[in-house]
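Recap quiz, item 2
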Amino acid sequence: MSKLQILVIGRHPEILQTVVRLINNNPNWQATGAITDQEALSAFNTIVFKLVLLGGGVDNESEATLCEAFRTKNPEIIITQHYGGGSGLLFAEIYQALGN
Amino acid sequence: MAHTVLHKAETRGHASHGWLNSYHTFSFSSYYNPDRMNFGALRVLNDDTVDAGMGFGTHPHDNMEIISIPLEGDLEHKDSMNNVAVIKNGDIQAMSAGTGIYHSEYNKDREHRVKFLQIWVYPDKKNVEPRYDQITLKLEDRHNKLQQILSPNPDDEGVWIHQNAWFHLGKFDKGVNADYAIKAKGNGVYVFVLSGNVKADDQLLNTRDGFGIWDTDKFTITAETDAEFLLMEVPMMQ
């Protein structure tokens, strides 16, 4: 079974790394981290993501630009906010976004 | 007409990690219940007990208002803003994680456990500069009256956070009651009973029960026994 692909965008490198590591602890999920908008857009063009998590530091302008680009390329993409920067809310946010 | 929700203590999520025993009112970490995600902007209410000499290693947070209220014992806090502090029963700590912080929390005591409430409130603005605040409260100021311990205003009583929220503590003798008037339109109040039994808007609550009320201007809380409780007024829209 292929892993569910999740794109995580956040400006804080250590927190981004932590969130990616936590997601990848689930054997059914595969996370890709992106610090910059360009990294996020580039990853979105090469991997078929099911879910995008918008993490800390992403301002409103970037969020609007990224969401428009993601939805243009994949209207089915699920985009949700990640709050807290760690394990506390992460899994509930993912389950809720996926409708589980 | 007021709307209400009742969360009995025994319906909370529970996680035992050996050194940490935690009860989750709302979904947290490996506890996921889609019907128990939040009460408005109140997202986390964890009732934690930490064994002697144990604690939470350094870990990150961002974009969350994090409030800790020790109920028993002392907890040492260290963070990436170079704050080193001990919070003890009678204190309240507030941290705006904003663009990102790291912190650790340890029970340095080798003999006694620590009990504390860990509360997370969604911020009203994202990516703020991280900040830390801690104060010692006067215990007598909550005896048979409501003591404000948190607000949105730096100049008001208690600590402050980036959210239109107000917290109060009460330690009431049996039979004492108080009216609570909602401070901001659209807000609701989550009542959490620390000890004893209370009635909130005629709903009987026992120790560690939670009760949310919204779409009302005020309600009455009455101590059915000697009781301690926490009132958390938060916006009902995140």
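Residues 4-98 of chain A form a domain with the Rossmann fold fold (CATH 3.40.50.2300).
Residues 60-73 of chain A form the longest helix (14 residues).
End of item.
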